[in-house]
Amino acid sequence: MIEKISVLLVDDHAVVRAGYKTYLTLSEKIGTIYEADRGESACQLYSEYRPDVVVLDISMPGMGGFEAMRRMVNRDTQCKILVFSIHDELVFMTRAIKAGAKGYIIKNSEPEILTEAVCAIAKGGSYIEPKLAQKLALSVAIDGIEERSLKSLTPREFDVFCLLAKGLTTREASEKLRLSYKTVANYHTSIKEKLALKTVAEMALLASREGIIKTGHEKIL
Amino acid sequence: MIEKISVLLVDDHAVVRAGYKTYLTLSEKIGTIYEADRGESACQLYSEYRPDVVVLDISMPGMGGFEAMRRMVNRDTQCKILVFSIHDELVFMTRAIKAGAKGYIIKNSEPEILTEAVCAIAKGGSYIEPKLAQKLALSVAIDGIEERSLKSLTPREFDVFCLLAKGLTTREASEKLRLSYKTVANYHTSIKEKLALKTVAEMALLASREGIIKTGHEKIL
DNA sequence: CTGTAGAACAGGAATTATTCCCATATATTT
DNA sequence: AAATATATGGGAATAATTCCTGTTCTACAG
Predict the structure, then answer these.
(1) Of A48, A192, A200, B138, which has the most beta carbons under 10 Å away?
(2) Which residues in chain A touch residue B197, judged by CB atoms under 8 angstroms apart?
């Protein structure tokens, strides 16, 4: 008989873990299920039992999902991590994959997808939420294989970005930079396009995430 | 024998519902459990079966949580709603209570608290997550450093605020809330005026500071 | 019971902002 | 010298925002 898949479930919400568990145990391919409610214990349990697949929620307090993932990957580059996130934004998915995740699904996914993804990853494959994969494909098709990073901004665009993200109006930014309103308005547009953002609110949040502006509540990663 | 408590579970994530269900069925006081994955069907099921308690996830305001609650309360002022949220910020709790919820617990709560709260509410009582209750007491003592300005927003304005601050465009927000574009555009203006903000970037930063939206770098309180 | 007030919702018209497509200048690379 | 990237802004079409208006509802005071 084939070995069953062992899984380490990491999520800080007990109820949510119960939910995952319910679905995972429905599959006869899946055996032991370990549980952890935070990154620290997840790392420890991982070292101890070496589960085949880690199902990880990345929106956790404490060390956070990303950091836990990095540590596990660091310890064992072959480790198979499936990220199960509430975020359906591409940024999170690409970040997770870059950090070493083998799969990324979201909580809105059909529950069956969970076991499907776990099995795929256990076999050495990968699994990306179809909707996100498509979204990525589209965004690539539309604006090419472009670095959606702040580094893709020209110096001047970056100046404008900082001011707009901080909450200045287009007019205020143009006065501060001694530029024509039109110039700033045009940068405004090119910045959003380069960074694939739709609104200045997204600019603000990105800047906050990147530590460019302070909200007063940042945590050190 | 005493009648068992019937519960309507509202959460858009199937896995999460499975989790609630696991814990709720552990108690012999709880009987039938109905499920809904969105506000619309929740309202419909509520009218149809009149469950004793509604366990409602308001994960992100606007997407149906708050609005569904208001509708149910509208239809039956005696209806007993327990909000089960991921947000441990006071704003959400006070808003939920104002909108008619009988209880508010968070997903970080010990799972046993769920059934405890459901039972308390079924009996006509109320239940507030102890940590939040304490937090509120403290903040009242300090004379609400909390969100004094956010309080000036009407419930609907608050819904719109959350979405715009998160980076949705006016059109996207109107679609999510099923409102006319014009209505959202008008709220957009009134929100900025009430909060003395000039741009949506400022809205985003304020929301981030208040912990209403996550940038992924927040400090845990 | 009636009136007032607040809130939710949305249309119309005037005003602004944004987009897209230019054009020019300058500096750097190749 | 030619190509490329950047900085700067104009013009015109389009879209978003503001400000004002109105209709419903509900809540609540007198």
Answers:
(1) A200
(2) 167
Tell me the CA–C1' distance in angstroms for A186 and C20.
10
Identity at A17, one-letter amino acid code = R
Task: Calculate the angstrom distance between C1' of C16 and CA of A151.
Answer: 31
User: DSSP for B24-51?
Assistant: HTTSTTEEEEEEESSHHHHHHHHHHH--
Q: How far is the CA of A182 from the C1' of D10 (A)?
A: 8
Question: How many Cα atoms occupy the beta-carbon half-sphere of B55 within 13 Å?
Answer: 33
- What residues in A contact B110, CB-CB < 8 Å? 14
Q: Model confidence over B51-62: pLDDT tens digits? A: 999 998 877 544
Answer CATH for A150-209 from 1.10.10.10, 3.30.1330.80, 2.40.128.110, 3.40.190.10: 1.10.10.10
The most confident of the ranges A8-17, A66-75, B70-79 is A8-17
Domains B5-140 and B150-209 belong to one CATH topology? no
Which candidate in A38, A116, A215 is best for mutational testing of the B interface (most B CBs within 10 A)?
A215
Q: For residue range B168-183, what is the model confidence (pLDDT) as tens digits?
A: 999 999 998 899 999 9
Residue B97 corresponds to which tokens in the numbers above? Answer: 């209570």
Contact A216 B209 (CB under 8 A): yes
* Beta carbons of A57 and B108 less than 8 angstroms apart: no
Across the interface, do B217 and A218 touch by the CB < 8 Å criterion? yes
Domain ranges of chain A: 5-139, 150-209
Residues in Cβ contact with A105 at an 8 Å cutoff, skipping those fewer than 6 apart: A82, A83, A84, A85, A113, A114, A117, A127, A128, A129
Amino acid occupying residue B84? F
Write out the CATH class of domain A5-139.
alpha beta
How close is the nearest chain A Cα to the Cα of B32, in Å? 18
The reported pLDDT for the residue numbered A119 is 92
- First-to-last CA distance in chain A? 44
Between CA B191 and CA B194, with CA B192 as vertex, the angle to 5 degrees is 65
Is the CATH number 2.40.30.170 carried by domain B5-140? no
The set of strand D positions with any atom below 7 Å of a protein CB reads 5-11, 16-20, 26
Alpha helices (runs of H) in chain B, residue ranges in sequence order = 14-24, 39-49, 65-75, 90-98, 111-122, 130-141, 155-166, 170-177, 181-195, 200-209
